[in-house]
Each structure stands twice: as C-alpha cells, then as structure tokens.
Amino acid sequence: MPKKRSGGGLTGTQQAAKFVGVSVLAGAVLAGIALPAAGALGLAAKGTVQGFDEIPANLKRPPLSQRTTILDSQGGQIATVYSRDRTVVDLKDISPYMQKAIVAIEDSRFYEHGAVDLKGVLRALNRNAQSGGVAQGASTLTQQYVKNVFVEEAGDDPDKVAEATQQTLGRKIQELKYAIQVEEELGKKKILENYLNITFFGQQAYGIEAAAQRYFSKPAKKLTLEESAMLAGIVQSPSRYDPVNDVEEATKRRNIVLSRMAAVGDISEAEAERAKATPIKLRVSKPKNGCITAVDGAGFFCDYVREVFLSDPVFGKDREERNKVWNRGGLTIRTTLDPQAQKSAQESIKKHVYQTDKVATAVTMVQPGTGKILAMGQSRPYGFGKNETQINYSVNKRMGGSNFGFPVGSTFKPFVAAAALEQGKPPTQTYPSPYQMPYPSSVSTCSGKPWLNQGDTVENENESEVGPYNLRDAMAKSVNTYFVQMIAEIGMCPVVEMTTKLGAVQGSGEKLPEVPAISLGSKGMSPLNMANAYATFANRGTYCTPTAIEAIKTADGKSLPVPKTNCSKAMSERTADSINALLSGVIDSGTGEKAGLSGRDNAGKTGTTDARKNAWFVGYTPNLSSAVWVGSPAQDVEMFSIRIGGRYHGSVFGGEVPGPIWRDAMTGALDGREAPGFVDVHIPDAPKDPGNGKPKPGDNKPGGGGDKPGDGDDDEGRPGGGRPGGGNPWDGITLPPDMIGGGQNGGGWR
C-alpha cells in the first residue's frame, strides 16, 4: 500500500505518479501500444474519477466571447461593449515573434510531441519528486488550450469557473482526452492560433489582439521581439507579471522568455541580450467597455439598445438565452441613431441645463412614419459619479427608466382632442370653460360604471381665463376647464382607447386610469412615449412602434433577424391634420411661442405640472418629433426662483425652459434636411356665446370624486392650479431613500 499523509491524501509525488500513469496509459491506448504496468499506477479510484472511456468523445468548443460594436445609422461607432475584451485574429495576423515566444516559454517541444509530452511529464515527475511537492507542471499547450475552453464555457458563473479550474485527477484526465481529440482534429497551427486567441493576458485583455492593443496600442501582427516576449511572460501569472503595475517584475519575466527563446534556437544569444537591454516601453490604451464610453451623450441610447436585445424574443426564447448571446458578443449592431440629431440634442441640453443643476432634462427624437429613434440624451451623463446616473429618463421602467415616468401636464390635452374629433366633435367645439369648476360627475367609463366626483375642483391658469372657448383657443391657451368638460362629454373610454392606440402608457407600463384628471396630464409618462405618440399626428394618424436597431451581423458575417416597427391606424387623417393645425397655433401665438422653428411647418404643446415639478414641450415637424422634459428625477424640486443652465427663472413652465431646448435641438437636427409641410386644414372661428361664460345647465353637475385631490394641471401659470393639492401623484408620499433614484446616482424613481 502506498504511504499516505496524516490527512489521508496522497503525497505530491504519489499524485504526480498517478497522473503520469494515466497520461502514459491514455497515450498508449491511442497509439495501440500495450503497457500492462500502467494499470498498476491506478487510473482512478472508483467513485472519484470517470473512467477514461466514459468521458464524452467530443469537446464542445463554444464561440469565443468578443466585443460587440454599436454603430449609428451612418456607420459611426457609438460604443463597444463586451463581457471579455477580445478580437479573434488569424495566425497570419499574429507576429512570428509572438508565436515563437509563447511556444518557447509554455511548451518548447510543442511541435515534437502529441497531445501529451511524455518526456515533459517524466521530467516534471522527477523535479517534483526531488522537491517533495509540485514544483513543475507538465501540461502541453494543447492541454492548456482545452482548460481555457472549459473556462470560456463557464462564462461569469463563479461555480462553473471554479469547476473548470479545479486541480483534480478527474479534471486532468478529462483535459487529456480532449487534448488528444483536438490534436487529431485541428493540427498544431490551428491549436496555436486558438490558444493565442483564448488566453487571458491581464488588464481585461483576452487574446493576443486585445493584449497588443491594451499594452502597446498596436495590432498583434506588429509586435516586436521585446513586446512579444513580455506578453508571452504574462500568461503564467497575469497579476504578478503585470507591466502596468510592476514593470520590474514584468521585465524579469520577459528576460526569462528571451533566454528560453535563445536556448531553443528561435533567436540568437546576441538578439536575446540586445532585447534584454531594451526597457519595456508601454503605450497603454485604457479599456473602453460599455455604454459609459458612448460618444455625444449616447450612453442611454446604447443602454436602450442592450435592453431591446435582452427583452425581444427575436433574439432568443427567454432572457437567459438572449443574455448568453449578448455576453458572447462579436456582434456589429447598426442602430437608428442619427449622428446629426444626437449631436444637436446633446448640444442643446448642455446649453440650457447644466449637469450640476438641481433639475435635469431629457430629450428624445423619433422619425414619424418609421418609429426610428434618432436621438436620446439627458443632462446627467451615463455613469456612477456625482450628478451622473444609469437611469434613462427617456424610457419606461421596463427599459431602464424611472418607476413611473414623469407627469406630463397639458401635453396630454391633444390626446383628449383627438379622441373627441374621432367621436364626431367638430374642431369648432365650444365649452363654457369657467375659471374654476368642480370636476364633472358622472363620467362614463369603458366598464360601464360611471366615475363620480367627490368634491374636487379644477381651475385655469389665471382668473381672467373665462370662456366660452373653442377648441383652437383652448388648446393655444391650454385651458384646463375646457378639456375637463370635453372629457366629461365624450366619456373616458374614447380617451383611454386613443392613448392605447398611441402607445401612451404610464412609465410603469400600466394603462392610464379612467379618471378625468388624466386630461390634465396627472400621470407619469416617458419622453420616448410622448415623442412617439406625437409622431402619429405628424404621420397623419398612423402610429408606428419605436425601434432602435436596423441590422445585426455576427462575427462571421451572418445577419441576425431584428425587431421591426409595427404601424397601425390610430385615427383618421382628417383628425390628425386637425390636431396639427391646432398645435401649430400653440407655437404661433399660444403658450409655445418661444419654441417655434423658422422656415418650416411645426407644431407642439407645452405642459407644466402643479408646483412646477415638471415642465414639458413636445413638438414635431412632418419629418421629426421630439419630446423635452425638465424636472427633478426624484420629484422633490419645485421650479420657482431657480437657476437652470446659469439663468435665473422666477417660475418654470413648458414654453420657458423645455421650449427653447426643443427649438435648438430640432433646428440643428433638421439643418440641411427637407422641410415638408402639413396638410392644410381650415378651422373656422366658432361664434362665442354672448353670455358671461357661465356653464350651461347640467355642464357642472354636483357630486364628487377625483383620481385623488389635486390631480390637476398648473399649465403655464402660478402654483396651485387644480386645487386642492397639486398635480403630482406622489405629493404627500414619503418613500425610503433606496426607492428614490435621485439619490447617489441622481436618477428617477426606479
């Protein structure tokens, strides 16, 4: 019986002997040579290691994880993302010095032996026996490659990585059998190529191409002798021989490699000495991984692309499968992002709102008729530092946005108007529109159970705003009581159905509730939702789902299917054309005068919520729609007596801060682009009731019940519109700090 240590395990010498027995046996089996004595060394104790013949015959070699490149619509690079920074290259694109250096230091007899180097095993066994431990390994380059395949297949799962790297007899036997298979299938040159592409070189660089770029900012084919020797030396211990953190240790290791290259005849002694005398000269390129590196503030769009990939079934049956494809990378993703529009949006943001301001802004642009997202930016950059965030204010919670979106104020009113026109109401429709009134009661709903008011009231911006008003004037002046009366007459169901057709849902993803207060924009929505909904007006009533990805190619040039936009009729062309005419009036002479564009047809709507916690401008031309939101992501700043972008504002409203942001962003985005016009629709003036604007009998029935007190809109005037309370659905609710995204990352509620 072999002697055992007190712990019951074999000594290092005995373990090495056991392994060499297995190695010799396996080599002999494949060579057809009988070695009866090999069995005495013991293949494996039953129950601890698989029998050699029981190991599956085929090594599964998964595609190597590589970097994914995200491009804009013109082919410009937005960012690169990867789980492992790797670019696979052919052997011909790797410096001959590098090929010789790695073989010399890792497996100098690589071209002479098979999968197992029996001579090397015996040499290692002798050394280990003399030292009483494991002083020298005997793995060939092929065996090391097989181990790296196991590690690559394990991905980022720590348990699988531990299993792939465990130093057990069973694992060694498995490596051995697969190494024999690989040698037969691939041949030496392909094994060397694969090894150099899979190996980790430290500093987040996987494979020789990434390593050459990381340490020397050059391709692998241009590596010099000195550079190649340094990189080959790193492989044994990337942390210990890291030249960035310990150039002295890296130099010693490099010189060992050079000596070894001379010893095996790859270079002369003189060449080795000259190279040793040359100091290591690094030209380090910092890793550029992830959306944080995106150009022109496109980090949030980059993150949105990732969310689309992980959530759309076209890329895999479930999120786990899609995540594997994303992490494997090697993709080239061409997106819808328009570089001109993105640059213009970001320049406008920086001009009007500073990163350090108490409030933030988000701008999203969409192309009518295609749903293509052309720009997406915000004032707080993508990142982890102060006044940075990873929360995308432009999108819904499901795609990385805030929990609820942001209350949209009077930018919701065109949805009510569109629903009314679809129900047959004329664009000249007139309502008494008093300065203040109770919410109507009762109001019909889709369920058939009427909504009843329980005492809440709504009021206009100023006491001087007393009707009657027709639709054109009510839209231009953003008269609250007019739209509450309109929704009372047509009922809630047409409005909810219209918003559903327009893809207008709450930031949480939920449909809007059937309560009259939604006519004043009391519920939170995202800028992308709003820009895309308004794009439907520009597209003459046809809604198209938003899309961010144009095409995807794999590392081998294969095209992948991508999600397509789906377009559907949301309203008649006549209705859309009428809304365009109404919203053109908002810019011409209404609350959005400061936002108007020159030289082209444009339309839009302002919106401001109670206590000035949110201000919006959503507008469009026939070929571009854009939404701008300004406010506190955590909804805890009232925009009175506030400095934004270096300018003082007594009070903020939709036409004052968001409006100019929209104007400048749109102007740059459309510069040099065609200027189509809207289809003209004449909306005549409606005769006004000669009375004093008092509501007709039955217009304001007593009774009560709001969504909740204060869900009104303070569109463009003093605080408190829609009293009692305010239009912010979160007023009076105290949340724990970890539920408020505006904390350390400065983001919205998440």
Automatic annotation (TrEMBL):
One of its GO terms (cellular component) is outer membrane-bounded periplasmic space. Residues 77-261 form the Glycosyl transferase family domain. It catalyses: Preferential cleavage: (Ac)2-L-Lys-D-Ala-|-D-Ala. Also transpeptidation of peptidyl-alanyl moieties that are N-acyl substituents of D-alanine; [GlcNAc-(1->4)-Mur2Ac(oyl-L-Ala-gamma-D-Glu-L-Lys-D-Ala-D-Ala)](n)-di-trans,octa-cis-undecaprenyl diphosphate + beta-D-GlcNAc-(1->4)-Mur2Ac(oyl-L-Ala-gamma-D-Glu-L-Lys-D-Ala-D-Ala)-di-trans,octa-cis-undecaprenyl diphosphate = [GlcNAc-(1->4)-Mur2Ac(oyl-L-Ala-gamma-D-Glu-L-Lys-D-Ala-D-Ala)](n+1)-di-trans,octa-cis-undecaprenyl diphosphate + di-trans,octa-cis-undecaprenyl diphosphate + H(+). The chain crosses the membrane at residues 20-45. GO terms for molecular function: penicillin binding; peptidoglycan glycosyltransferase activity; serine-type D-Ala-D-Ala carboxypeptidase activity. Signal peptide: none annotated. GO terms for biological process: cell wall organization; peptidoglycan biosynthetic process; proteolysis; regulation of cell shape. It comes from the Bacteria. Residues 675-750 are annotated as: Disordered. Keywords: Carboxypeptidase, Cell shape, Cell wall biogenesis/degradation, Glycosyltransferase, Hydrolase, Membrane, Multifunctional enzyme, Peptidoglycan synthesis, Protease, Transferase, Transmembrane, Transmembrane helix. Residues 362-630 form the Penicillin-binding protein transpeptidase domain. InterPro entries: Beta-lactam/transpept-like, Glyco_trans_51, Glycosyltr_51/Transpeptidase, Lysozyme-like_dom_sf, PBP_transglycosylase, PCN-bd_Tpept. Residues 719-729, 740-750 have a biased composition (Gly residues). It holds the Pfam family Transpeptidase. In the N-terminal section; belongs to the glycosyltransferase 51 family. This is Penicillin-binding protein.
